[in-house]
Inverse folding.
DNA sequence: TAGGTGACGGACC
DNA sequence: CGGTCCGCCACCT
């Protein structure tokens, strides 16, 4: 269903684009926002498929644990994400952890 | 075709 | 706090 629906990636990117600067959203939030509750991993892949640089504010998406997902497979995009968030005023420590609850974005009740 | 992997999440310890 | 386990589902050997 997820993969079969036309432009799943496009929906993810559209939802991510709703997140204002200086705010954070989780993969799960984005998934739920596009009607794909429980498919947080697919959201991750959608962002991974994203070619950088991108107009999509992908860096504002973190996991529910409140930290940047550090992975070697990201080829440094994780550290890039850290820099981008700091530049938007969100403090991120060496372990990629950040005050999620403080900057968490409240998604609109009605969306897509 | 089968099995391992992962930019996740939640329950547990 | 942190670490582990399990469910999840598309992707890649």
């Amino acid at each position: 269903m997820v993969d079969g629906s036309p432009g799943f990636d496009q929906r993810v990117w559209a939802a991510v684009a709703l997140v204002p600067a200086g705010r954070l959203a989780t993969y799960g939030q984005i998934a739920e926002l596009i009607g794909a509750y429980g498919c947080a991993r697919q959201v991750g892949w959608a962002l991974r498929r994203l070619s950088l640089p991108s107009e999509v504010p992908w860096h504002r998406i973190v996991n529910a644990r409140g930290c940047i997902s550090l992975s070697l497979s990201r080829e440094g995009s994780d550290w890039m994400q850290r820099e981008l968030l700091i530049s938007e005023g969100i403090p991120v420590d060496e372990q990629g952890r950040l005050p999620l609850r403080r900057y968490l974005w409240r998604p609109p009740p009605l969306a897509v």
User: Anything to note?
Assistant: Chain A has one domain: 8-100. Residues 26-28, 31, 38-48, 58, 61-65, 68-71, 73-74, 77-78, 81 of chain A lie near DNA strand B (CB under 10 Å from a C1'). DSSP finds five helices and two strands in chain A.
